[in-house]
Design brief:
Strand content: 5-15%
CATH architecture: 3-Layer(aba) Sandwich
Order of helices and strands: HHEHHEHHHHEHEH
Strand order of the largest sheet: 1-2-4-3
Bound molecules: flavin mononucleotide
Distance between the termini: 27 Å
Radius of gyration: 20 Å
CATH class: Alpha Beta
Length: 234
């Protein structure tokens, strides 16, 4: 049986571009953030960070970095969702530590997190090893199915994919709580990164304007592509 509250959250979620001033209660925000942390991620490496912007001066600069879009300016809360391509080692160690608190590591856990993950994620000084790994994987794939032994750009894509899933989970959780959001990719990535003091391997995945929709929050009725452009059976 479908879960009605899940589908009503999915169907009623819209990109909201004009918000009421009413702040979002901390407990609602915390529940939505904790739901987002449950999102699936590549190798469970959870490469995301939600930066909740509370400082008014930072907020003003963040609005400007978001090109002063109306949702950024009207939302009671703005969040920068950051993706980290360089936290894999720290997070891998944490996964192993948690596994170890649950008993002896299984062989598959050891092999995956101690050998395969470093092989896939290490790209060497200046990322120079990456293209070699990629060429090697492409050649090996001519002979047998081979995963992409990633270059830096592949790792970046991986981190953004997983982070976007956390964003989707967060937005749906907010909707289930009766709150709204606007995901924003329209921002200046260099200014945003400098403003938030992000390290080299981090980037803003998207900004999320959060609050309750005003009467003019939804700008038009939903527009959907034909189903057979989106779904295909082979
Ligand atoms: C990654 C991403 C970036 C987006 N960037 C912006 C943005 O910068 N400004 C904006 O107004 N809407 C932005 N949107 C919202 C989309 O325009 C919106 O999701 C789409 O038109 C579908 O409408 P709906 O979300 O109401 O179903 C973005 C959505 C996504 C997923």
């Amino acid at each position: 049986m479908p879960e009605p509250s899940f589908y009503s959250a999915v169907e009623s979620r819209r990109t909201v571009r004009d918000f009421l001033a009413e702040p979002i209660p901390q407990e609602v925000l915390d529940r939505a953030l904790d739901a987002a942390r449950l999102a699936p991620s590549s190798s469970n490496l959870q490469p995301w960070e939600f930066i909740i912007i509370r400082n008014p001066l930072v907020r003003q600069a963040a609005n400007a970095a978001c090109l002063d879009q109306i949702p950024a300016k009207t939302a009671p809360l703005l969040i920068a969702l950051v993706t980290h391509r360089d936290t894999w080692r720290r997070n891998r160690d944490e996964i192993l530590r948690i596994f170890e608190t649950r008993g002896p590591l299984r062989r598959s856990q050891k092999a995956y997190y101690r050998r395969i993950i470093p092989l896939v994620y290490t790209t060497g000084p200046y990322g120079l090893l990456g293209p070699l790994k990629r060429v090697f994987s492409r050649l090996a794939s001519l002979f047998k199915p081979t995963p992409n032994l990633m270059a830096r750009e592949d790792i970046r894509i991986m981190a953004h994919k997983s982070t976007a899933l956390a964003a989707a989970t967060f937005m749906l959780a907010l909707r289930a709580e009766g709150y709204d959001s606007c995901p924003m990719e329209g921002f200046d990535p260099w200014r945003a990164k400098a403003l938030l003091g992000l390290p080299r391997g981090a980037e803003v995945n998207m900004f999320l304007a959060v609050g309750k929709r005003s009467e003019k929050g939804v700008w038009w009725d939903r527009v959907l592509m034909p189903r057979d452009w989106a779904v295909r059976e082979i």
